[in-house]
Amino acid sequence: MSADNPSTPSDSHAVDRAMSGDDIATLYDELADRYERWGRANHLFSGPLRKRAFGDASGRVLDVACGTGTNIRYLPPTAQLVGVDISDEMVEAARAELERLRRGGTVYRMDAQELQFPDDSFDTVVSALSTCTFPDPVAALDEMARVCRPDGRVLLLEHGRSGVELVGRYQDWRADAHYEQHGCRWTQDPLAHFEGTDLTVIESETLLLGVVTIIEARPA
Ligand SMILES: C[S@@+](CC[C@H](N)C(=O)[O-])C[C@H]1O[C@@H](n2cnc3c(N)ncnc32)[C@H](O)[C@@H]1O
To answer: How far apart are the two ends of the chain, measured CA to CA in Å?
Structure first.
């Protein structure tokens, strides 16, 4: 692992080379088209989970690592949305999705580990399937805590290593290849990232053979 791209202590299967933020941006620039093409299937599969995780987000809402903007349609229409992502292509796709859905809001290219927003500037921070790709997930979670109002909420939809041993072993076996292809550590334990951060987990629910975790946290 390189010094400026810390791995996470929670990875159950470390890879030889950790990607930097620039690597991830380049990779997701290339993947953006595929994400758009698979949009319908993605909504079918993950839509109910996103609704469950983010359906009651309120006020000024920040979507961190928003990707192509998949979360947008599951956020209440009253939410004032700001999205950020490190990939230019993802940012373009999320802006197009905002327009398609005729939703107000803004999307910026920004590193989740160095959010360019003042402290306490959002009522709700949401993020989906993201801690697995952040070079430093703890830094990103601390940034989410910083920009969230002290009485606000941080809502995450995450994935990780299955508690079902057969599935978990398959994930272990494919971990390096999956990381190379998607920059995604799919054997992570998403809850373990919270230890020592400025966020306190209020509630968590694990679904789909223990692969998906919905998390509600608050600034500590
Ligand atoms: C697996 S995709 C998930 C996208 C979207 N949240 C969704 O649920 O469809 C991971 C996203 O995280 C973004 N990302 C990774 N590292 C980031 C960082 N440091 N700052 C901002 N975005 C980042 C990638 O560009 C990509 O769009």
So the answer is: 30
CB 128 within 8 A of CB 70: yes
**Domain annotation for the chain: domains and CATH numbers:** 21-219 (3.40.50.150)
Q: Within 6 Å (CB) of ligand 1, which residues are found?
A: 21, 24, 28, 65-67, 70, 84-87, 90, 111-113, 128-130, 133-134
Are 172 and 142 in contact, with CB atoms under 8 Å apart?
no
Task: Tell which atom from ligand 1 comes closest to the C-alpha of 90.
Answer: 27
Going from the Cα of 150 to the center of ligand 1, the distance in angstroms, rounded, reads 25
Instruction: List the pLDDT tens digit at each of the 220 positions of the chain.
Output: 233 333 333 344 444 579 999 999 999 999 999 999 999 999 999 999 999 999 999 999 999 999 999 999 999 999 999 999 999 999 999 999 999 999 999 999 999 999 999 999 999 999 999 999 999 999 999 999 999 999 999 999 999 999 999 999 999 999 999 999 999 999 999 999 999 999 999 999 999 999 999 999 999 9
pTM over 0.90: yes
Q: Which residues lie closer than 8 Å to 143 by C-beta, 6 or more apart?
A: 64, 112, 113, 114, 115
